[in-house]
Structure formats: structure tokens, C-alpha cells
């Protein structure tokens, strides 16, 4: 019997402009850049991690920079929205004012699945949502950085539900429940289309996947403003190895164990093409930088240090 996944670990998306991306997520959204590093599968591109004060598991929204990335043509077979948690309903009113001030496109406060939310997009059309934790019971959020331009009581505390839009939802339901151990916990409607809620671990906003079945949409063509993958939390490396064997026992082709230095991972795709990752809660982001200066310099895992000069020569300087 596998231990339940603990919730959402991180979401990784695409940007075409690291500088504008940094400005939006730190100066407008008030998240902390806890790690400025590179894509370990392609060290010519930045990998930026925005999170709470120290990048606690479940708080990381990350971006790969691909300068020539085209626009996203939205559709199915996609991770179609990423939610970010705030502590209270009152905080959403603060954010409406802030979005208006900075001309961030948003849909105002709505009630969805018994929670107050604000749908909005970033400068590249990344589909995002703020979700209030005022009535949340489940996985706890993180701790906003006290040097953020956003007051700590209004700050983003971590990742909320991710929405997956797929043409064959029954196959995804099966993967979530029979392979990953999620349970169905509810249903609601968005613009006449049913969304099914699945939860894992302690449940709540930090441990939900929302699935929308849409056969009427074209397949998404990803680009800047799209999401690459979503990762779920595993306690430690020992449990991750068990998950690798568990995936194999269900006939799920996967990457096997992958060393990411800040955490350890396994990757696999479900039958609709959504890329999932299972990632360990540790070691975390303070193994190569002190808490006080997280994200200020280019951090490289030890196995890339001998390539630092070459790697830095291919990156456009990014002042953080």
C-alpha cells in the first residue's frame, strides 16, 4: 500500500522573457525568487523558482525561459490553470485593487466550489487564479516573505488546485485514482462544463486536481504562457523509489529516478498527454545558498559547477 501523495509540489511553466517574468512574479505578485538556476536538461535556459519565503514544498511556481517561444494556442490536453493561495477573502479585495493599479487583466471575485477566487493572467497570458483559504481545511500553506512588496497577511502562501483540461477524462480519472491514489471529492460547473475535483493526502486547496473534460476544444499548442508539468509531493527518496516501482507495476512508462539536487523526481505522462512529476519534499533550496540571499546569484548543482563559465556565457544576465 503506497503512502498518499502529500499534495502539489510545484508547477513548471514557460516564459519567453525572464526579466519581465521576474518583474511580474516578484514585484507585482510579491513572490520570492528562491532559486535562479538552469534547466538541468538544457542548461542554455534559465529555470526560475518563485515561492514563499524559503521555497517550502507546495509553494513553488517555476519557469523555463525559452526566448523564441511562440504564443500559446489554448485547448485541451493541457494544464489549463494554476491557482495561488491567499489566506482570506479580504486579501482578494486587496488583490483586485493591486491588479487594477498594475493593469493586470482579471475576472473579479467569483465563488467556485464554495471558495472565493479571482481568475487572472500574466503578461504572456499564463492562466492563473488566486484562491482564498478562509474556509480551507487541509494542507497548510507556506509563509510569505517579509521583504515582499505585498503585505504578509495578503501574500501568496503557495499553490492551489491545478486544472487539467483533457478530451478523455475517464482515462485521467483512472490514473489519478487507481495509480496515484487520489479520491473524487466533488463536482462543480464552469460556464456549463462540469469539473471533477480529486484530492490527495490531507486534501484542501493545496492537494487538489480539477479535471475538465472537453472534447469540443482543439489540442493546445504550447508556447509562452503555457504550463509544462505539475509535480506532486513525496515524503522522501525512499518513498520515491517505491513510487517508481509502483508506476512500473501499473505499466506506466516513466523516467525512473532523476536527481535534481534540490529534490529527487520521477516523470511520466498519462494517456491524455499530461506530464506529471513526483518530487521529494527535500533537500530544499538552502544547500547551496543561505536563506538570506536565496535567488540572488546563479545557482548550479555541484555536477554542473565545472561547466559554470560555459553555462553563464550562454545566458543573458538577469539582475535579481
Automatic annotation (TrEMBL):
Q: Which InterPro entries match?
A: Extradiol_RC_dioxygenase, Glyas_Bleomycin-R_OHBP_Dase, Glyas_Fos-R_dOase_dom, VOC_core
Say if the entry is tagged with keyword Oxidoreductase.
yes
Q: Give start-end of the signal peptide.
A: none
> What residues does the VOC domain cover?
7-133, 158-281
Gene Ontology terms, MF aspect: dioxygenase activity
Keywords in alphabetical order:
Dioxygenase, Oxidoreductase
Q: What is this protein called?
A: Ring-cleaving dioxygenase
